[in-house]
Amino acid sequence: MKNLSALKRGVVFIAVMAVLCVGFAAVSKTLNVNQEVTAADTMYQTDDPDAPDVYMTTEITPEALVKIYDRLGFEPEGNVAVKMSTGEPPNSNYLRPELIGDLVQKVDGTIVECNTAYGGSRASTAAHKQVIEDHGLNAISKNGVADIMDEDGSMTIPVPAPANGTSTITEDYVGAHLENYDSLICLSHFKGHSMAGYGGAINNMSIGIGSSEGKAWIHSGGTSHTSPWGGNQERFLESMGDATSAVVDYMDGKVVYINVMNRLSVDCDCDGNPAEPDMHDIGILASYDPVALDQACLDLIAQAQGNTSFLNRVNRQNGYHTLEHAAEIGLGSREYNLIDIESEPSPTPTVTPSPEPQANMTYTDGALTISNLEGSAKLIHASYKGGILTNVEITDAANGTTNIPTRSGDKFMLWNTLGEIMPLSKAITVEMGTYNEDNKSKILIVYFSRAGENWEVGYVDKGNTAVIADYINENEKIDADVFEITPVDPYPESYDETLTRVQSERDNNARPEFNGEIENFDQYDTVFLGYPIWYGGLPMIMYTFLEEYDMSGKTVIPFSTHGGSGWGSTKSELNTLCPGAEFVDGFSTAGTNARSAQDAVNSWLEGLNF
Fold this sequence. Notes:
By secondary structure, the protein is α/β, with parallel strands linked by helices. Helix content is 29%, strand content 20%. It contains 16 helices and 27 strands. The strands form seven sheets. The protein has an eight-stranded mixed beta sheet with strand order 4-3-2-7-10-11-1-12, sandwiched between helices. Strands 20, 23, 24, 25, 26 and 27 form a six-stranded parallel beta sheet that branches. The protein has a four-stranded antiparallel beta sheet with strand order 16-15-18-19, with no helix packed on it. Strand 15 (379-383) and strand 16 form a beta hairpin. The protein is elongated, with a radius of gyration of 28 Å.
C-alpha cells in the first residue's frame, strides 16, 4: 500500500473498516447480544459512601473542563502526559484545542498519542505529526510539540496479577516514550466504537497508549503482534481492561480520568467521517476510577433521548463485557456516586483567628519598623497588590528597620520562618495616607505588533496587538510608559509573504533585531507584555527582546491577539524565557475582535485592582 495515492489509501481504509465492522457484527451474533438495552439494565448509580465518586457538569466549556479537573484535587508530579485521540481526518469528532487548551496548559501537559495499527492518516509517525499540526494540537502542548510515544518503538510492561479472576493478556506493549512521564491525565471523548461498542477511559488507556504493536496485541486478544484483525471479541474486550491495569500500575496510580460527552456519534474518533449523533451533548464527567467513569457515561446514555443507535452499537459488540471484566480483575467499580459539581454547596470558609501580636510593626514614609520582638525571627512576608511575594530579611530581631518600596494596599506580616503555620504578628496594610509617590509601582507597556494584511481582518494601518496596547494605556487607572518593539527589518505587508518569513525564522531559531532600547529598565515593577500568536507560539522577535531584558522580580502581565488558537504555547514559552517573574492573568482575543475589545480590556484591568 505504500505506493497508493492518498485518495486510494483512503478508499482502501474505509473499505477495510467496513469489512471489519461486518466481521465483528457477525461475531456479536454468536455471542447472542443483539437484544435492546434499557436504562434498567445499566443503572449502577448508588448512595454507598464507599463507592467511587464520579463528578459531573452539564457545561461543556473550557472553564467547565478546568473546574471539574480542579474538583478532583489531583496534584500531578513531574512531566504530565495528557492522553487524547488526535482524530482521523477529515471530519472526526476529536476534542478540539479550543475546548481542552486551557486544561492542558494549566497542568503544563504534553499531549501524547500513538500511531494506529489499521492504516489511515496516522499510521506513520511523519503523517501522524502532520495531522497533529493540522488539528492545532501542537499549539496547546508543552513546548509546542505533541509526543507520538511509539515514534521510537514499543516498551513492554507487565499486566499485574488480578485480585480476582484471571487476565487475558499478561503483558502490554506501549509507546516507549511513556517512560518519560510521571503523571497522566486520560482525557477522552466518549462516543461509540465500531469494534469495542463504545470508547471512553478504558479504551483510551489501553488501545490509545498501546503502540502499533500493542494495538494489534490487544485487538487480537494477545495472539498477534502485527495484525489487529480477526481476534476473539471477548478476549479483545478483556484485553483492554488488562492493558489499562498495566498502564495504571506502571504509572504508580498517578492517573485521573475525564470523559467529555459531546458529539455522541456511534463512530469513534478513528473514523474520519463518523455518523452524525442522534443525541444531544450530555456533559463532562471525571473520576479516579475508569470503570466507574465509563459506567456512569453509559448509564447517562441509557437515559438519554435518541439513544437507540448508540446502545445497539454497544450491545452488538458486547461492550458491557469490558466493564464486567475490568471490575472482576479489580481495575475499578461499576457502582459509583454521581456528584453534580454545579449543585454542590459552596464550602464554608475556614476562619483562622488572628494571632496575638508578639511584635510591633509600623510603617511611616516608606520605612517598615519592627520593635519589641521576642525570639529570633528573620523574615518579613510581604504581599504586594500586584501579586509578588517577597521575603525581606531583618537582620536585628530585637529592633529591625528597613526601607521597602510600597504602595497602598500592600500587606506585611512577620514570620519566624517560612515554614511556620502561624505568624508572629498581625498583618498591617499600607493605607493611602502612607502612600509614597516616589516608591509607587512603575509600569511599562511593551508590545510587538504588525500592520498590513492580517488574517480575516484585512489590511490595517495599526496592528491588532497595538490596538490592545492603546486600550491598556488609555485606561484611567494605568499610568505607564510605552515601548513598541519594532523590527530592524520590517515584516512584509503581504500576509502570505509574512507567513513564509515567520516559518523560516522558526525553523532557523532566528533572533530578529529590533530598534531602540529601554532606558533604566530596572525602574519598572510591572510589565504589560503584548504580542500576536504566530503558528501557535511567540514571534521570534519576542525571544530577542526577552533574552535582552531580564524580567526576574517583576510582575509580567501578558496580552495577545490570535487567529483562533488562544494563548497557544506562549505561556509555557514565557515561563522559560522569564525565570523569576511573577505572572498575572493576561488578556487574549482574536484579531477579528481587537477593534471592539475596549470594554473587555477595561473589565480585565478592573479585575487586576490597579
